[in-house]
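Private note to self, pasted from the team thread so I don't lose it. Backbone tokens:
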């Protein structure tokens, strides 16, 4: 009986892994819809394009351009109409307002802040997200644009 349960668990876990991996699909520029190509062209000026991908989030197909500008990452999510839905852009801790710096440092606790990104949705800054490393553990924390605690993750 234990073998059957173990085998079923392995099959389900394997299927889940492939389902998650299949959600994001790498693309070439020519595979993007024309409206998305136009937006990518405008948004990627002075940037190096790392890759393009697509996935469905909440039933909506989004296209993502991973860019690098002056050594910093910038990921842009675009809907099929060519509208920018979200931008995740790497920022430096020293460039942030004191309230945001203090909130991220406090949220990091004893961990080291490795990367900070600003999160902009439909043209509005909604949060800052920091990647924290504590020993072998990795986690992310978010604070609002003014350093306040968020009611829910963005």
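Design output:
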């Amino acid at each position: 009986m234990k073998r059957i349960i173990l085998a079923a668990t392995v099959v389900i876990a394997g299927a889940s892994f492939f389902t998650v991996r299949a959600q994001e699909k790498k693309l070439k520029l020519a595979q993007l819809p024309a409206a998305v190509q136009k937006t990518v062209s405008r948004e990627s000026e002075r940037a190096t394009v790392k890759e393009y991908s697509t996935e469905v989030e909440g039933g909506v197909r989004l296209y993502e351009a991973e860019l690098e500008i002056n050594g910093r990452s910038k990921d842009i999510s675009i809907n099929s109409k060519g509208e920018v839905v979200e931008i995740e852009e790497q920022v430096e801790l020293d460039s942030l307002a004191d309230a945001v710096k203090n909130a991220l440092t406090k949220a990091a606790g004893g961990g080291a802040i490795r990367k900070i990104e600003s999160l902009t949705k439909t043209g509005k800054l909604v949060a800052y997200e920091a990647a924290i490393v504590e020993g072998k553990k990795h986690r992310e924390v978010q604070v609002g644009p003014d350093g306040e605690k968020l009611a829910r993750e963005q």
